[in-house]
Amino acid sequence: MKEQLTIKWDIAAQFIDDDPMRPIRYSKALRYLKNKSKKSTLLDLGCGEGTGLSLLHSLGFTNLTGIEVSHERLKRARNKVPSHTSLKFVSPQNKTLPFENNTFDIVISLAVIEHVLDPNQFVKEVHRILKPGGSAIISSDCWQWRLLQILKVHTSSQPIDRAPFPSKFFKLFKRNNLKLIHYEGFPLPSMKFRFIREITTSLKRTLRRTVYFAGAIIRKLTFKWFLKKWEFIPSHTKLNHQQCVFSPNETFTPTSSWTFYKKISSFLKICFSDENIFFLKKESFDD
């Protein structure tokens, strides 16, 4: 089972490296790190192919560590990050991370928690390996992607993809003694309201297909009735369905009426943005 899940992550690696959200995630995280010492011990938990570690190194952070569940992505990271950067592999089923208690000043984990087997254990480990007073930055896809998966509108290329609802994050952080300093939601580049567009487009497709299908049946029955009534219906007559073909490439473009989105509270933003990010601080030693 362990080997199977690791293989699945290696297969997924070829689909998830070209992620337009990655630069935005790290730019959000860096605002929280601007006053941190460049000598801080920093862990990128779920470092992928090393893009974030390379960026952090270019900004002056020298004591960097990355950890990853995919052999394939870790191999790419080794070819990208500075040679002195520590990189470690961890099995997706491991409940503990290969670090001592109170090891890091900073833990960054961007778009990872929604892909782990046990989010509570994940947050517990973040707390354990952080030094007292240490900082954690955790981001996640929004819960809405799970709804899109249930509705068969969105298909994930990753073997585990279960974004929690925002309120669950708050409970996880409080339960594991991580103080929430700030949180916010943010959209995909040039794709605001993607969730609403996906749902609307799906409903439009379903409705249009239903209408066309019903119309085709009605036209076919009416045509047959008309010809049969006048007694010149050929036995080989068939309705041409070409007019009922629906193009799946149609898109929905939101109008200016959607500008009310800017006025809603930050909580609603993290409920309906594409991604959420949480800035945390370890309050005390492990019990």
Topology:
Blueprint: H1 2-16, H2 22-33, E1 42-45, H3 51-58, E2 64-68, H4 71-78, E3 86-89, E4 104-110, H5 119-129, E5 130-141, H6 144-150, H7 166-175, E6 178-186, H8 194-229, H9 266-272, E7 275-282
Parallel strand pairs: 1-2, 1-4, 2-3, 4-5
Antiparallel strand pairs: 5-7, 6-7
Can you describe what's shown?
This protein is an alpha/beta fold. The chain has helices spanning 2-16, 22-33, 51-58, 71-78, 119-129, 144-150, 166-175, 194-229, 266-272; strands at 42-45, 64-68, 86-89, 104-110, 130-141, 178-186, 275-282. Residues 230-264 have low confidence and may be disordered. Helix content is 40%, strand content 17%. It folds into two domains: 2-188 and 268-282, Rossmann fold; 194-244. Strands 3-2-1-4-5-7-6 form a seven-stranded mixed beta sheet, with helices on both faces. The protein has nine helices and seven strands.
